[in-house]
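for the recovery benchmark. C-alpha coordinates below, seq after
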Protein backbone atom coordinates (compact mmCIF):
# COMPACT_ATOMS: atom_id res chain seq x y z
CA UNK A 1 0.00 0.00 0.00
CA UNK A 2 1.38 3.41 -0.93
CA UNK A 3 1.52 5.88 1.96
CA UNK A 4 -0.78 8.87 1.62
CA UNK A 5 0.46 12.37 2.30
CA UNK A 6 -2.02 14.12 4.57
CA UNK A 7 -3.54 17.34 3.36
CA UNK A 8 -3.05 20.20 5.79
CA UNK A 9 -5.77 22.77 6.41
CA UNK A 10 -5.13 26.09 8.09
CA UNK A 11 -7.53 27.37 10.74
CA UNK A 12 -9.75 29.33 8.34
CA UNK A 13 -10.01 26.43 5.88
CA UNK A 14 -10.84 24.01 8.69
CA UNK A 15 -13.41 26.40 10.18
CA UNK A 16 -15.17 26.69 6.80
CA UNK A 17 -15.39 22.89 6.52
CA UNK A 18 -15.98 22.01 10.18
CA UNK A 19 -19.60 20.95 9.63
CA UNK A 20 -18.56 18.37 7.00
CA UNK A 21 -15.66 16.89 8.97
CA UNK A 22 -15.30 14.51 11.88
CA UNK A 23 -12.65 16.05 14.11
CA UNK A 24 -10.45 13.72 16.16
CA UNK A 25 -8.14 15.24 18.77
CA UNK A 26 -5.18 12.93 19.45
CA UNK A 27 -3.89 14.74 22.55
CA UNK A 28 -4.11 13.25 26.01
CA UNK A 29 -7.50 13.48 27.73
CA UNK A 30 -6.13 16.11 30.09
CA UNK A 31 -4.94 18.30 27.23
CA UNK A 32 -8.23 17.78 25.39
CA UNK A 33 -10.14 18.90 28.49
CA UNK A 34 -8.16 22.15 28.55
CA UNK A 35 -9.79 23.24 25.27
CA UNK A 36 -10.53 21.60 21.93
CA UNK A 37 -12.10 22.32 18.54
CA UNK A 38 -15.91 22.40 18.63
CA UNK A 39 -17.31 18.90 18.27
CA UNK A 40 -13.91 17.21 18.44
CA UNK A 41 -13.74 13.66 19.73
CA UNK A 42 -10.77 12.61 21.87
CA UNK A 43 -8.80 9.57 20.76
CA UNK A 44 -5.31 9.77 22.30
CA UNK A 45 -2.52 8.97 19.86
CA UNK A 46 -1.51 5.86 21.81
CA UNK A 47 -5.10 4.54 21.47
CA UNK A 48 -5.47 5.30 17.76
CA UNK A 49 -5.01 1.66 16.75
CA UNK A 50 -8.20 0.71 18.58
CA UNK A 51 -10.11 3.35 16.65
CA UNK A 52 -8.96 2.43 13.12
CA UNK A 53 -11.93 0.14 12.35
CA UNK A 54 -14.41 2.86 13.38
CA UNK A 55 -12.49 5.55 11.49
CA UNK A 56 -12.54 3.42 8.32
CA UNK A 57 -16.33 3.48 8.43
CA UNK A 58 -16.71 7.26 8.59
CA UNK A 59 -18.95 8.75 5.94
CA UNK A 60 -17.49 12.23 6.48
CA UNK A 61 -13.99 13.59 6.02
CA UNK A 62 -11.58 13.18 8.92
CA UNK A 63 -9.59 16.04 10.45
CA UNK A 64 -6.94 15.05 12.98
CA UNK A 65 -5.71 17.68 15.45
CA UNK A 66 -3.30 18.00 18.36
CA UNK A 67 -1.66 20.91 20.16
CA UNK A 68 0.77 22.05 17.45
CA UNK A 69 0.31 19.71 14.48
CA UNK A 70 3.17 17.29 15.13
CA UNK A 71 1.18 14.47 16.76
CA UNK A 72 -1.63 14.89 14.23
CA UNK A 73 0.87 14.39 11.38
CA UNK A 74 2.08 11.23 13.11
CA UNK A 75 -1.53 10.11 13.52
CA UNK A 76 -2.24 10.75 9.83
CA UNK A 77 0.76 8.56 9.00
CA UNK A 78 -0.54 5.74 11.18
CA UNK A 79 -3.99 6.06 9.64
CA UNK A 80 -2.54 6.11 6.11
CA UNK A 81 -0.81 2.80 6.84
CA UNK A 82 -4.29 1.41 7.49
CA UNK A 83 -5.81 2.99 4.38
CA UNK A 84 -7.61 5.78 6.23
CA UNK A 85 -7.30 9.20 4.60
CA UNK A 86 -7.11 12.09 7.05
CA UNK A 87 -6.51 15.83 7.00
CA UNK A 88 -4.37 17.60 9.59
CA UNK A 89 -4.73 21.06 11.09
CA UNK A 90 -1.70 23.29 10.54
CA UNK A 91 -0.59 24.66 13.90
CA UNK A 92 -3.01 22.43 15.82
CA UNK A 93 -5.31 23.82 18.48
CA UNK A 94 -2.71 26.49 19.27
CA UNK A 95 -2.91 27.78 15.69
CA UNK A 96 -6.70 27.48 15.77
CA UNK A 97 -6.93 29.63 18.91
CA UNK A 98 -4.30 32.10 17.63
CA UNK A 99 -6.45 32.60 14.51
CA UNK A 100 -9.32 33.70 16.77
CA UNK A 101 -11.33 30.49 16.43
CA UNK A 102 -13.41 29.25 19.37
CA UNK A 103 -12.28 26.37 21.57
CA UNK A 104 -14.76 24.33 23.57
CA UNK A 105 -13.72 24.21 27.20
CA UNK A 106 -14.96 22.06 30.05
CA UNK A 107 -17.62 23.31 32.42
CA UNK A 108 -16.46 25.28 35.44
CA UNK A 109 -14.84 23.07 38.03
CA UNK A 110 -13.81 20.40 35.51
CA UNK A 111 -10.24 19.16 35.60
CA UNK A 112 -7.89 21.03 33.27
CA UNK A 113 -4.37 19.75 32.67
CA UNK A 114 -1.34 21.51 31.29
CA UNK A 115 -0.47 20.91 27.65
CA UNK A 116 2.00 18.05 27.18
CA UNK A 117 4.72 20.41 25.94
CA UNK A 118 4.44 22.40 29.17
CA UNK A 119 4.51 19.21 31.26
CA UNK A 120 7.68 18.12 29.43
CA UNK A 121 9.36 21.51 29.98
CA UNK A 122 8.56 21.42 33.70
CA UNK A 123 9.75 17.84 34.13
CA UNK A 124 12.94 18.30 32.08
CA UNK A 125 13.79 21.53 33.89
CA UNK A 126 13.16 19.99 37.30
CA UNK A 127 15.34 16.97 36.55
CA UNK A 128 18.15 19.15 35.13
CA UNK A 129 18.08 21.39 38.22
CA UNK A 130 18.04 18.33 40.50
CA UNK A 131 21.03 16.87 38.64
CA UNK A 132 22.95 20.13 38.93
CA UNK A 133 22.07 20.54 42.60
CA UNK A 134 22.93 16.94 43.48
CA UNK A 135 26.10 17.39 41.40
CA UNK A 136 27.34 19.65 44.20
CA UNK A 137 27.25 16.60 46.48
CA UNK A 138 28.81 14.23 43.95
CA UNK A 139 29.83 15.03 40.37
CA UNK A 140 28.28 11.83 39.02
CA UNK A 141 24.80 13.35 39.54
CA UNK A 142 25.56 15.83 36.75
CA UNK A 143 25.13 12.89 34.36
CA UNK A 144 21.41 13.15 35.10
CA UNK A 145 21.37 16.65 33.60
CA UNK A 146 23.47 15.46 30.67
CA UNK A 147 21.05 12.59 30.01
CA UNK A 148 18.10 15.00 29.86
CA UNK A 149 20.03 17.32 27.53
CA UNK A 150 20.83 14.36 25.27
CA UNK A 151 17.20 13.28 25.34
CA UNK A 152 16.05 16.76 24.32
CA UNK A 153 18.50 16.83 21.40
CA UNK A 154 17.36 13.36 20.30
CA UNK A 155 13.74 14.49 20.63
CA UNK A 156 14.35 17.49 18.39
CA UNK A 157 16.24 15.48 15.76
CA UNK A 158 13.67 12.67 15.56
CA UNK A 159 10.55 14.77 16.21
CA UNK A 160 9.56 12.31 18.94
CA UNK A 161 9.47 12.70 22.70
CA UNK A 162 10.03 9.80 25.05
CA UNK A 163 9.36 12.01 28.07
CA UNK A 164 5.96 12.99 26.65
CA UNK A 165 5.19 9.31 26.10
CA UNK A 166 6.04 8.59 29.75
CA UNK A 167 4.12 11.60 31.08
CA UNK A 168 1.14 10.58 28.93
CA UNK A 169 0.88 7.44 31.06
CA UNK A 170 0.30 9.39 34.27
CA UNK A 171 -3.26 9.03 35.59
CA UNK A 172 -4.06 12.71 35.03
CA UNK A 173 -3.26 12.28 31.32
CA UNK A 174 -5.06 8.96 30.79
CA UNK A 175 -8.60 8.37 29.69
CA UNK A 176 -10.74 5.75 31.27
CA UNK A 177 -11.50 2.80 28.98
CA UNK A 178 -15.18 3.77 29.12
CA UNK A 179 -14.34 7.23 27.73
CA UNK A 180 -12.72 5.72 24.63
CA UNK A 181 -15.57 3.22 24.23
CA UNK A 182 -18.05 6.12 24.33
CA UNK A 183 -16.00 8.01 21.73
CA UNK A 184 -15.84 4.95 19.46
CA UNK A 185 -19.61 4.52 19.77
CA UNK A 186 -20.08 8.20 18.82
CA UNK A 187 -17.98 7.62 15.68
CA UNK A 188 -20.47 5.03 14.51
CA UNK A 189 -23.07 7.80 14.13
CA UNK A 190 -20.92 10.03 11.91
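predicted aa per position
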Amino acid sequence: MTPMTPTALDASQAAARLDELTVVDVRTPGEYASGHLPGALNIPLDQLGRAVPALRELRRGLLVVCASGVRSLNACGVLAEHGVRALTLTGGTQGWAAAGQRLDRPAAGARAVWAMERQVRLTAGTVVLAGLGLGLLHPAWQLLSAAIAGGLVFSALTNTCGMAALLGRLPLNRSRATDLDTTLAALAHR
